[in-house]
Specification:
This protein is mainly beta. It contains four helices and 20 strands. Strands 6-7-8-9-20-16-15-12-13 form a nine-stranded antiparallel β-sheet, with helices on one face. The chain has a five-stranded antiparallel β-sheet with strand order 5-11-18-17-14. Strands 1-2 form a two-stranded antiparallel ribbon. It is globular, with a radius of gyration of 20 Å.
Length: about 280
């Protein structure tokens, strides 16, 4: 991972032995493809972005397992400090992300429900030569709190839904962005997501998706911290479940199709034991 203090973002992420670049969209796609994980203070920022996305943050600390950035921001009209920390482990396929907000005002900051949003990147790779960004088939995804099924956010409405600027689903286990081969999911750790929101405008190419936070009061001089686990892995059920059981739908395999897929794969691998050439075996 290559970091930048501009927006406290990941400018490059190479995945696996093949070193697949997941930060896509910087050149050919008209979106901010960096993996920046912003904290937004309004629904309007979710759609238009924030000045903090492009500002230079202060590098607060860095080590072999963690990097931390800090910046000033305004919440409910009052000054605060935001420290964003990425923490890594040797287990792979996920990292931890924390947002510590410190109240710099002389009185309390009252944050209404639905004010703060922890957001995903606009887009997710891989970067593929000779293919435009749309080949990645990106989408906003989420799993509702009382469900074990994956739902995808629609853009521009559909047969059973009207067009909206911001799509919304109440009470979710996790939310993220998905490409043809990879899943990126934000899993709340010390809070409950009141909702998931995503850019539903048909004309845009962004698939930014956010966890919406509840109400909170931060006393003068006090801090609050929100932690999320960020899963970033290929759409492999075993890998995703190893990160969190609720990520099983993130493999994006239909429960009716999966048994057929498993049977076909088993048969293909069995045939290939004798032939030794997948082209002929297929």
């Amino acid at each position: 991972i290559v970091f930048s203090n501009r927006g406290a973002r990941m400018e490059s992420v190479t995945y696996g032995k093949r070193k697949i670049e997941l930060v896509a969209g910087k050149e050919k796609h008209p979106v901010n493809g960096y993996l920046d994980f912003p904290l937004y203070t309004s629904r309007d920022e979710l759609l238009k972005g924030s000045a903090l996305d492009k500002e230079l943050w202060e590098l607060r600390s860095a080590s072999a397992t963690a990097v931390s950035y800090a910046t000033a921001l305004t919440i409910a009209g009052k000054p605060a400090e935001l420290v964003k920390t990425y923490t890594f482990n040797e287990k792979g396929y996920y990292f931890d992300l924390s947002y510590r907000i410190t109240n710099l005002a002389k009185d309390a900051i009252d944050i209404p429900a639905g004010t703060l949003r922890i957001a995903t990147p606009d887009f997710l790779g891989p970067v593929l030569k000779n293919y435009e960004g749309n080949y990645n088939a990106p989408s906003s995804v989420y799993v509702e709190a009382d469900s074990d099924s994956l739902d995808k956010g629609t853009k521009g409405g559909g047969i059973f839904s009207k067009a909206v600027d911001v799509g919304e689903a109440k009470k979710v286990k996790w939310a993220g962005v998905m490409s043809r081969f990879f899943t990126l999911a934000l899993l709340p750790q010390n809070f409950t997501a009141e909702a998931a929101e995503w850019d539903g405008r048909k004309e845009t190419k962004t698939f930014r998706t956010a966890l919406v936070l509840g109400a909170e009061t931060i006393a003068a001089g006090a801090s609050t911290e929100k932690n999320v686990k960020v899963a970033l892995a290929e759409k492999n059920k075993e890998i995703l479940v190893s990160v969190d059981k609720s990520l099983k739908p993130g493999a994006d395999v239909n429960k009716w199709i999966e048994p057929i897929r498993f049977g076909v794969m088993w048969l293909l691998l069995w045939i290939n034991k004798f032939i030794g050439n997948f082209g002929v075996s297929i």
